[in-house]
Specification:
Length: 322
């Protein structure tokens, strides 16, 4: 089958280890199913894998990709793949399983004609979402859903700041926060991206680090070092910073004086559960909200998409069609 995979690890030049080529057709083990992929989306996770974050060279070649929508070959159903793979017999919150992995960490990923997943890791794809839209949900949109509603527990009428507005998780946060009745502020590094954030639903968008007109109840943080200090300064006393990524670096000053004096809450967040994925899909059906897709390109052009992501040349999600 055709697949997009990491053949070697290159921390400084991640695309050097990328191959679009042939991999063996996979056969599911007991309890697993094979999904014929229609669309799959790129995530920053794919660049981390190529850089060697969360994977060792002895695991290569590894097919990239955490998200997919396609046909479950054991049932013929149109499905969205849930990327969080739990250890057998795990009960409870999928994301709290100490042995959980995402597709492309231990098991081969979804940027391919076929992907194998445990049978319980598929969820029906709603007919009103396109294949491309459905392929955006399992990582970026699920992560954003859990950050806003499970971790920060934001309520209609409250205010939120989304840092790094153009990213996959960030565009999802902006769209869903607006649809949920929140006051939405966003930051982005260019005026063009700030304008796109406003179009997407941000009430106001600013340059990274700019003072906000009011302090917010929560900040959605995926940028890390470059925005952390601004995130802490933007919070009301008792506010929450929810962090699910650190694209620009993971070692900012913790500013502990501010954290304890203002009783700020720092909440880590990773992916989401299958029931949160179901709730997210329901949210999209009820509101009519759809993932912002920057571009849809053929699987063969994966390198172009990953290069755009590495240079920050995107607004929303990049989808590969298979
Ligand atoms: N924990 C989880 O489960 C989970 C799930 C999904 C993603 N993540 C992590 O979250 C991060 C975002 O993922 P993604 O897929 O949404 O990535 P993405 O689509 O590539 O977006 C990254 C965004 O970060 C901003 N950014 C990057 N470097 C920056 C800098 N130096 N200063 C300011 N802003 C900067 C950019 O926003 P602007 O150009 O608009 O400023 C960029 O668009 C990644 O680190 C990813 O690994 C974690």
């Amino acid at each position: 089958m055709r697949a997009v995979y990491a053949e070697s690890i290159n921390p400084d030049s991640p695309l050097d280890g990328l191959v679009v080529g042939e991999r063996p057709d996979p056969t599911p083990q007991d309890g697993w199913t094979r999904v014929a992929v229609k669309s799959a989306s790129l995530n920053h996770h794919d660049l981390w894998t190529l850089r060697g974050v969360g994977i060792k060279s002895e695991q290569l070649p590894m097919i990239l990709g955490c998200d997919a929508a396609g046909i479950d070959e054991s049932t013929g159903d149109e499905v969205v793949v849930h990327s969080v793979i739990n250890t057998e017999g795990w009960r409870g919150d999928d994301t709290l399983d100490p042995g959980r992995t995402l597709l492309s960490e231990k098991h081969q990923g979804s940027l391919a004609e076929y992907v194998l997943v445990p049978k319980q890791n598929v969820i029906p794809k709603p007919a009103e979402l396109s294949w491309g839209e459905a392929a955006c949900l399992s990582t970026a949109w699920l992560t954003a859903y859990r950050m806003l509603f499970t971790q920060a527990r934001l309520q209609p009428g409250q205010a939120v700041l989304v840092q790094g507005a153009s990213g996959g998780v960030a565009t999802a946060c902006i769209s869903m926060a607006r649809a949920a009745g929140l006051r939405v502020f966003a930051t982005a590094r260019t005026e063009g991206k700030q304008a796109r954030a406003r179009e997407l639903g941000a009430h106001e968008a600013f340059a990274s680090g700019a003072r906000l007109p009011e302090r917010v109840d929560a900040v959605m943080e995926t940028v890390g070092e470059a925005t952390w200090s601004h995130s802490l300064k933007s919070l009301k006393p008792g506010g929450a910073i929810v962090v699910s990524g650190a694209t620009s670096g993971a070692g900012p000053s913790a500013d502990l004086n501010r954290v304890f004096f203002l009783q700020l809450r720092v909440l880590g967040s990773t992916m989401g559960t299958k029931s949160e994925l179901a709730a997210l899909i329901s949210f999209l059906r009820i509101t009519g909200l759809r993932p912002l897709i920057d571009r849809e390109i053929p699987l063969e052009k994966a390198a172009d998409g990953l290069a755009a992501m590495a240079s920050g040349d995107l607004v929303g999600k990049i989808v590969l069609t298979v």
